[in-house]
């Protein structure tokens, strides 16, 4: 077995890759929407295909991860996920974009399950809460991906040029840094159904993850459009919305291990829910871009540790194999991450984009109410 620090670096590189590819895509959504002349509603329905792809991939990946090991599955999917990003740049209409988003979402969801299973193995080897630090690396990657969008706009790169350059660089670096010897555990996974759904104590864990991830997904795909259409920000400033969100999320995820050790997972999650609620209120009440950016920053703090805590709880469940447990929580958790954007789009068409963001407020309150589900199984 390799050194534990080297193992952390390897998994961190994979999380950065996953986040960067998502951030690269999120930063150019306004450009893709304008190129295809899509309405808020049409974009929302298109993003729903991304959610469907992810949800369909969870049970398959969970079983493959338990059978062949998290490391092997993670590396294969990392390459496929990068290639699927390029497909998004060649879409010439709504249905082409929807189909490519389904593929992109499937590989995004698959990689989430596999890399979190690998991260759980390293966390158990550390014997202290480090899952939050891996998710900090995801946010760091997402922020860098979003900033690459800002740079691409400034120098006049097309979406295809941006995706090829940024995606190619990040996948090569990530795979090089993660190419270490690590023996993943394997377990017999129950057959399950078409979808990986949580059961028992994992149901509330999944719903807590859903509330946090739905808000995270809404910010990822709609912050740029919110800043441009609602507050009147120029495109370069609008691209900073997700970057600001990601930076604060990185900071609090890096501090998450200390917070969880010092105050416990339940109190840390409750604090996150309160910050998320304050952030949502700040965004929807903002009259100009600066105030909205402050709200997005608070939302980054609020959602930071919810998913890491949910995956740690799932991976250590005494009754379900890790891959299957993570896949079941991911169905609700990352299902929320991907269902959030189309939900916002549909509500924006019915109401306004500002009012559509209001749906995130009661979900933030639910995080506070459901946070007890994130207590480790050993403490139940």
From TrEMBL:
CDD domains assigned to the protein according to its UniProt record, in alphabetical order: MFS_MosC_like
This protein's name: Inner membrane protein YbjJ
InterPro entries for this protein: MFS, MFS_dom, MFS_trans_sf, MFS_Transporter
Subcellular location: Membrane
PROSITE patterns, per database record: MFS
GO cellular component: membrane
Limits of the Major facilitator superfamily (MFS) profile domain: 201-380
Keyword terms of this UniProt record: Membrane, Transmembrane, Transmembrane helix
Molecular function in Gene Ontology: transmembrane transporter activity
Membrane topology summary: Multi-pass membrane protein
Transferase as UniProt keyword: no
Name of the gene: ybjJ
Pfam families attached to this UniProt entry: MFS_1
Residues passing through the membrane, by range: 7-27, 42-61, 94-115, 136-157, 163-182, 194-219, 239-261, 273-306, 326-348, 355-374
